[in-house]
User: Fold these one by one.
Assistant:
Number 1:
Amino acid sequence: GNSVTQMEGPVTLSEEAFLTINCTYTATGYPSLFWYVQYPGEGLQLLLKATKADDKGSNKGFEATYRKETTSFHLEKGSVQVSDSAVYFCALSKSGGSYIPTFGRGTSLIVHP
Amino acid sequence: DTAVSQTPKYLVTQMGNDKSIKCEQNLGHDTMYWYKQDSKKFLKIMFSYNNKELIINETVPNRFSPKSPDKAHLNLHINSLELGDSAVYFCASSQGTGAEEGYTFGSGTRLTVV
């Protein structure tokens, strides 16, 4: 079946540091890949997506590239801010088949001033 | 306008009670979901409806019963509440499987059973 594995957190960084949160997946065919962000007390929000291999999703300074050869979709940001402190979820979905979305377990990011 | 709205936002109730959570989406999506998020932020899918038809029913106690009166609404009724039901419940919606545009989540209902 499909699965998503994320690095365990929390990830603790100082403001302006470089961020990487690793995500790898297992799926047949060509899934779409997503990163969601959950701020404290809120629901998940779509951060970025990539629907085919080698696509790069980007939003709010965050980027992730769909690497089929390594089955990865790592999230990066060049300079984090305190306001980026949240839980980040990697997810996958496939069209034309199962409606069961697959989410990773989430990675907590804490950014200190 | 809120895209996916859930009510209530907070729910505190005693063990053994029956309660309902309501969800509505105004995005025109044809698929809706209920998720349970535990204290470690793990998201577990519970149910999914596509055009009012139940298509996902994960291993959930039968005390939980979803109902979709139309494709814009998905409610969750819980009978005989137990302490272990305490969690945050999220409603979400998508067009089809969500593979093109992803999912839109509500802001959650924090259920506390005492």
Number 2:
Amino acid sequence: KQEVTQIPAALSVPEGENLVLNCSFTDSAIYNLQWFRQDPGKGLTSLLLIQSSQREQTSGRLNASLDKSSGRSTLYIAASQPGDSATYLCAVRPGGKLIFGQGTELSVKP
Amino acid sequence: GAGVSQSPSNKVTEKGKDVELRCDPISGHTALYWYRQSLGQGLEFLIYFQGNSAPDKSGLPSDRFSAERTGGSVSTLTIQRTQQEDSAVYLCASSTGTGWTGELFFGEGSRLTVL
């Protein structure tokens, strides 16, 4: 059974820091991995999608990596800003549906 | 519209009543998903529609829950005889459904409160 774990559960950093969020999964048989952010009371916003054949994807200050063999993905956020404060979720796709981690709640202090 | 649209955004109902939640996916997206997010909990898969194939209903928590998708577009999630434990945010997503590699896009959700 595929399980997704995100560490840490919560993270607080000062503005300007670079940071890494971790995601691990138990079964490497996935089609892709997707990172989302969720603001309080809102839906999920897609950040990055990494296909199983890819190693990383970049969008602006965000970089996500995927190592299928070790069952790990990282989301790197450069030069963090208060507007980055949100819950970040990773999800893997072993088939039709996505399986989500519990999320990392990020707070960036001015 | 440009994104996934869900209605109502908020619904308060009394225990035992039926509710219907609507999802309008991104135009051209063939795959549609329903998830549930309870307070302090993760995202729980409910049901998945892919084109004309039979839906994957494996996540529906009880036979009080059902969903349909008409004309391959709009979907309605129905909860009969609502219970307090049904209180949650119900999220809908759609994707291009090209194989299982498409990116999922979520709506803002429907917040259900059962009194």
Number 3:
Amino acid sequence: KAGVTQTPRYLIKTRGQQVTLSCSPISGHRSVSWYQQTPGQGLQFLFEYFSETQRNKGNFPGRFSGRQFSNSRSEMNVSTLELGDSALYLCASSSAGGGYTFGSGTRLTVV
Amino acid sequence: KNEVEQSPQNLTAQEGEFITINCSYSVGISALHWLQQHPGGGIVSLFMLSSGKKKHGRLIATINIQEKHSSLHITASHPRDSAVYICAASLIGNQFYFGTGTSLTVIP
């Protein structure tokens, strides 16, 4: 079966702009979670969505937001980009009680 | 203090050696995860544990809930095992805390 698909793979944006990243989960998985990975902070949990509802949120400013659609696809939005938002953004999907399958990530560079 | 601590940070082994990576956590967890990340960023979920021991090929993961400690073992290590191994604790509600990772290099 198809894995978790993240688009785009690479993105370059300018400070102050906004960006939207997309994550398509494995078919049948209703939970999608998002993570940020930077060299300085490592992996950090952003938020998790289940059946179009945000179930949990990490410690990130309100500039980071997300949503999930009825087909379980999820988008993550970062507004007013800062240089420090440059990172690898990963999403993972899971089924109830199951393990997590990660996407290949979107590498965002803010210049 | 980090909720999840991993050791060692870096590890170099000769091909064929037995490898152990340790993870300690300070929070109450619903599950403990071991992840593998190769250069280029892709992450693979190796194990999800809530008790006992799991084995997949040459990889074994154990967890001691009372001691809040987990280990990842690699038997007969191979250069293709070279990667960063990350321990992650998931709490009820699917909040995650990650260790800083162990960078493993296996030399032929």
